[in-house]
Write a structure and sequence with these properties.
The protein is an alpha+beta fold. The chain folds into two domains: about 15-225, Alpha-D-Glucose-1,6-Bisphosphate, Chain A, domain 4 (2-Layer Sandwich); about 240-470, 3-Layer(aba) Sandwich (Rossmann fold), CATH 3.40.50. It contains eleven helices and 16 strands. Strands 1, 2, 3, 4, 5, 6, 7, 8 and 9 form a nine-stranded antiparallel beta sheet that branches. The chain has a seven-stranded mixed beta sheet with strand order 12-11-10-13-14-16-15, sandwiched between helices. Strand 10, helix 7 and strand 11 (about 315-320) form a beta-alpha-beta unit. Helix 2 crosses helix 4, helix 5 runs antiparallel to helix 6 (about 265-285) and helix 6 packs across helix 7. The chain is elongated. The relative contact order is 0.10. Bound molecules: S-adenosylmethionine.
Amino acid sequence: MGKTDTKAILGAEATDTTLEAQRVAAFAKFQPTYYFDAVKEMQIGGATWRVLATADIEDTEDSDFLGVVARWTSEAEILIPPVQRTEVLDEQPCGTTDELWLGEGIEEISRTHRTLHPKRLDKDKPLKEEVVVVRVCNDVLARFIPRTQSAADIPFYYPKVSEFAFGYLEPTTSSDGGADHAPWQLAVLVQELETGATVATKKHKGIWKDMVKKLYKWTATARLGYQKRQVHDVLVDHEAYIAKYQELKGKYADYWVKNWPEQTDPRKFVFEDIAIASWLICLWAQEPGKGSPSFVDLGCGNGLLVSLLAAEGFKGHGVDQCSRKVWSAFKPTVDLRVSTLEPFDYTADADWIIGNHADELVPWIPLIAAKSPKTKFVVIPCCPHDLSGKKMNFATVAGQSKYHAYVEHISRIMGTCGFVAEKEFLRIPSTKNVALVGRSRTGKADMGEVDQMIQDGKNAFVARVPDSVKNEIRLEKSRKRKLEASVE
Ligand SMILES: C[S@@+](CC[C@H](N)C(=O)[O-])C[C@H]1O[C@@H](n2cnc3c(N)ncnc32)[C@H](O)[C@@H]1O
């Protein structure tokens, strides 16, 4: 592997002074208001909440807030340091909410059952908790509800509440009298078990102050994430990724570099696919449930990524319209299928769809996933295509590359399909290194628009002609030319 490849994969933190300046500017605007002494209450949904802290936040959207909540739901240890790890037991994209929360304008976005495993097992038992994310008119509320037999079972590090919540709240009025330009508000809310118990000590207050600060910083940074340039390790922990990469490289790189049966340079594919497999494995380790998720790799090309994931114990298959020589070098258990997909009619029978540089299939993948309530996906866009399968350039804004305009375009499709567009710059040699992850649903899919896009795409889509057919046509033409020449 050349120096550049090593740097791309293991690379040092990218420096981006503009981003840093934006971050500093956003954090400087953090001016929380605490309601520890003067009690403030708020009606949201069917409940009255005690408000502990609020902070105005500019230039964000509820998808930023939802992205933060999704991450904190699967990794409570980020927010609550005494927690060692979070075990997500099950996740429901939507469902019927409890009675208090039924009503006009109330919509449940997700409901997750999880267990918080403490660092000090001698002090605390694991805590069962439910995280319910609801939209109440335009407000979004993430409710954290401990499921204990009695208040005495709540561990020492957890607030003494029947539930607490983070709110992303619509502005009501602003200083100029209108709500249009007023900033949205982040809020920390509680349902106390005993009045005043949550703010009884300096330590309690410190915990709430820390929470609202983290909520503000993470939400503000999520928005900057759409503008920033290369920032790695947002979705997957750097150390875990590097450890996995080194492990897989040790197991597979040497063999495939030496035994690559294709004409192509093995180093171009082997290290890149090992890096992507390592990153996916780390990402999937965050998934709820015990078993490994299943996958389908659409437009899998040489199939190396499928073979690496299969060798690491993941069940899945790859599909491509052209088989490759290297396919026969894989173990027979590596499931690679030749098929020209018509993406408008395709339904995935796997937990995750992968679309790694999958050309014209990339813009279709969020639409395919939108039609299937359980399917999540990762796309790594490459050359810009529209839904007709044609190459297409999308409008750029000042300083934006065509590639990043395309990434934004795919993110927008994800938004229409009701996915939080989580973004990661992968440490791979390719400069087309943005992974977009669709694993959290916003509950705001515009299914009318999705159906329309599928219908319009279906009318326009023309699958590419497989290379084998192109060769056949070329050969046929050359045979014809030779025949004509011999007749003359
Ligand atoms: C740029 S290659 C990427 C291959 C592989 N994922 C990688 O990163 O090495 C895109 C692949 O998508 C496949 N492809 C494009 N449209 C397809 C379709 N409609 N059905 C099946 N495969 C398709 C092509 O055959 C090609 O192998």
